[in-house]
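Friendly challenge for the regulars: who can give me the structure tokens for this chain first? No prize, just bragging rights.
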Amino acid sequence: MQNTRLNTLITRIAQQFIQWAENPWRRLSLIIISLLFGNFLASAIATSTGQRTDLDIVISLILLLITESIAWLTYGTTFGRYQLSERNSILGQRPIWIAILNSLKLGLIYGLFVEAFKLGS
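First reply, four minutes later:
Bragging rights claimed.
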């Protein structure tokens, strides 16, 4: 890629965000926020697809593909296994964006289970 101003700006912003998120409390707060956002997203998806019943199968297939691809990225690839920086490999932590995606996925699945229990009762 060429070293344009936009490319250097995006690279600097990403580096500053990674440095900012290295604090364990900030990392934990970002993971918890993404977990709660996944729960909210599940509730929003369930209510919006409940209005149009012809979309249920298509949306469930899309959600299945998204969650399985996030699981593959988190647990299946070597990139998901502690390869980003030296400090993360020493501490045994995943990169922050993979941890956020995985937490979002967990919140989404949990929220869909809660919505299913609500509909079943």
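DSSP finds five helices and no strands in the chain. The two ends are 55 Å apart (CA to CA). Your move, everyone else.
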